[in-house]
């Protein structure tokens, strides 16, 4: 697909017409939901989408309902023109950039809540966050009707929550994860990294380093509590304010005391005002 045929939609009827024409031609459609401020992590999702399907739609929507009252909704980075240029260059076919009014017209009253998977990790620290994500992504899936939707493993709890939503609600879509893209020093790419001061940016890769250490030390059968305590202490000594650091069952996200199956070491920590999350397979 050449850059010149890239299309950007702000009107749902027009978007649906475009996708319907692709479907009528038998083309597989892949959706990549984003909040914009795109970086190479997002573009890795576009590359994966192009590998698995014929048509790629990226949505850009800073979803107000997934931000808490004291979170960064107002200052979240927004640069639509730059994002559209990046998507076109990366070979996406279309961008879907709905307004808040399109997504949440007056009288909007539905919320999708996922029990269990949202009880731990980010759940208690971000009340309402996953309901906001589950609801908006369900809407995006119904608007675009993709065959596959791609999400980064960087937001591992989000990925698992959305897989649960799709299974529970019989959504006719496959929810797939894509490995985390990192800076050369290990820091996971994130739109929020631009909030970091130079000093904070220098310290930030420590989060990944601690996760990698715990992941490689958490051999099957050995208790993980000591490693976690040491990792938390190392992060706090480096200036992080740790919200959680845990080794979890990769499917249920319930913390485990010893590893005996697929597991993930997952953390959230503040550096100054910036909240970073990251995870690694054990
Ligand atoms: P966001 O715009 O932050 O909501 O992210 C949109 C999608 O990109 C989500 O599925 C994220 O998990 C994914 N994503 C964000 N950062 C990365 C990264 N560093 N590597 C891979 N995927 C990412």
Automatic annotation (TrEMBL):
Ligand binding (beta-alanine): 66
InterPro entries associated with the record: Pantoate_ligase, Pantoate_ligase_C, Rossmann-like_a/b/a_fold
Positions that bind ATP: 35-42, 152-155, 181, 189-192
Catalytic activity: (R)-pantoate + beta-alanine + ATP = (R)-pantothenate + AMP + diphosphate + H(+)
Residues involved in (R)-pantoate binding: 66, 158
Cellular localisation: Cytoplasm
Single GO molecular function: ATP binding
Record-level GO cellular component terms: cytosol
Principal place of residence: cytoplasm
EC number: 6.3.2.1
Annotated pathway: Cofactor biosynthesis; (R)-pantothenate biosynthesis; (R)-pantothenate from (R)-pantoate and beta-alanine: step 1/1
Keyword Transmembrane: no
Active site (catalytic residues): 42
Alphabetical keyword list: ATP-binding, Cytoplasm, Ligase, Nucleotide-binding, Pantothenate biosynthesis
GO annotation (BP), single: pantothenate biosynthetic process
Superkingdom: Bacteria
Quaternary structure and interacting proteins, as annotated: Homodimer.
Additional free-text comment from the UniProt record: The reaction proceeds by a bi uni uni bi ping pong mechanism.
Protein role: Catalyzes the condensation of pantoate with beta-alanine in an ATP-dependent reaction via a pantoyl-adenylate intermediate.
PANTHER family in UniProt: CYTIDYLATE KINASE/PANTOATE-BETA-ALANINE LIGASE, PANTOATE--BETA-ALANINE LIGASE
NCBIfam families per UniProt: panC
Stated family: Belongs to the pantothenate synthetase family.
Protein name stated in the entry: Pantothenate synthetase
Organism of provenance: Methylobacterium radiotolerans (strain ATCC 27329 / DSM 1819 / JCM 2831 / NBRC 15690 / NCIMB 10815 / 0-1)
Gene it is expressed from: panC
């Amino acid at each position: 697909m050449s850059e010149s045929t890239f299309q950007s939609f702000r009107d749902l009827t027009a978007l649906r017409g475009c996708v319907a024409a692709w479907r009528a031609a038998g083309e597989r459609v892949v959706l990549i939901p984003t909040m914009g401020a795109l970086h190479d992590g997002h573009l890795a999702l576009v590359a994966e989408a192009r590998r698995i399907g014929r048509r790629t739609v990226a949505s850009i929507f800073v979803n107000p309902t997934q931000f808490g009252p004291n979170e960064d909704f107002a200052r979240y980075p927004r640069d639509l023109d730059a994002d559209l240029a990046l998507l076109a260059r990366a070979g996406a076919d279309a961008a879907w950039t709905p307004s808040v009014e399109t997504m949440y017209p007056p009288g909007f009253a539905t919320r999708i809540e996922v029990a269990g998977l949202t009880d731990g990790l980010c759940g208690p620290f971000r009340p309402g966050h996953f309901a906001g994500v589950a609801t908006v992504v369900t809407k995006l899936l119904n608007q675009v009707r993709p065959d596959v939707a791609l999400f980064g493993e960087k937001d591992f709890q989000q990925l698992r929550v959305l897989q649960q939503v799709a299974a529970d609600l019989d959504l006719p879509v496959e929810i797939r994860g894509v490995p985390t893209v990192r800076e050369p020093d290990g820091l996971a790419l994130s739109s929020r990294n631009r909030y970091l001061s130079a000093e904070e940016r220098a310290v930030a890769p420590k989060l990944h380093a601690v996760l990698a250490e715990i992941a490689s030390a958490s051999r099957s059968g050995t208790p993980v509590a000591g490693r976690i305590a040491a990792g938390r202490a190392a992060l706090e000594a480096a200036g992080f304010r740790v919200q959680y650091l845990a080794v979890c069952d990769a499917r249920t996200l319930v913390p485990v005391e010893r590893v005996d199956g697929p597991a993930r070491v997952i953390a959230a920590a503040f550096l100054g005002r910036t909240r970073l999350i990251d995870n690694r397979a054990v």
